[in-house]
Amino acid sequence: MIGFWDYTVVLTYVSFASAVLGMVCTMSGNLRWAVFCLAFCGFCDMFDGKIARSKKNRTEEGKSFGIQIDSLCDMVCFGALPIMICYKIGMNHFYSVVILTFYGLAGLIRLAYFNVMEEKRQRETLEERKFYQGLPITSMSIVLPIVFVAAPLFSSRQIFMISLHAVVALVGLLFILDFKFRKPAAAEIFILVVAVAAAVLAIIYVERSWWKFFYVVGDICKIPQQLFF
To answer: What pLDDT does 104 receive?
Structure first.
């Protein structure tokens, strides 16, 4: 079989499988599990690089394969999956699709640029990256779940949808803006991703009566109940 088969890419493949499951959940209308799958992809992404670097005597081809497969997986997990979720939530108008297209294209450009620059950096130094150029595409695994969890706090569906459009457009723009972004420590990312995943899990398992009382999804967000239950 073609490819590089070792433990360094296992977590990347797990993340990809989670994204596919999230897409299936999105298409079947189970947005809560879809958002959880997105958060789980972010959790996997925290450790795949560390696992890859733990292998000694990696060949140049193996390193290059790792960079390419990671970016391809990221495009599915943090590009395609969020687009599907946002479309299902209600970003299905012409202007919405324009924003989603921009978001996806910005993510694609960022990942291609990262691949080129990362291969160059690894040829020059073995030090771990301390800064990112622009906002990492993986940040959507935190941003979108937060927006999803906070949706019931909006006073109307219109305000929620305007905010969602603005967030997606802004995140896409930050993907390609040239600024330095400090790479968060593993502990910082771990706490944030676990907190987001826990919040989504709480929504998944909460009693329907409490959900309707506290979040009032049907009245505030005007999103069909079958998308959540």
So the answer is: 97
Bridge partners (DSSP) listed for residue 182: 131
Residue 91 main-chain phi, psi, to 5 deg? -85, 65
Cα end-to-end span (Å), the chain: 42
State how far the Cα of 134 lies from the Cα of 67, in Å rounded to an integer.
18
In sequence order, what are the beta bridge partners of 132?
181
How long, in residues, is the chain? 229
Residue 209: its pLDDT value, please? 44
| Nearest alpha-carbon partner for 93 in 177, 29, 165, 33 | 165
Three-state secondary structure of 150-213: HHHHCCCHHHHHHHHHHHHHHHHHHHHCCCEEECCCHHHHHHHHHHHHHHHHHHHHCCHHHHHH
Beta strand pairing call for 180-182 and 131-133:
antiparallel
22, burial (CB in 10 Å: exposed 0-12, middle 13-18, buried 19+) = buried
- The secondary element (H helix, E strand) that includes residue 133 is strand 131-133
pLDDT score of 205? 66
Cα gap 155→221, rounded to integer Å? 8
Q: In this predicted model, what pLDDT tens digit does every residue of 5-29 receive, in sequence order?
A: 777 788 889 999 999 999 999 999 8
* pTM recorded for the entire structure: 0.82
Higher confidence at residue 121 or residue 18? 18
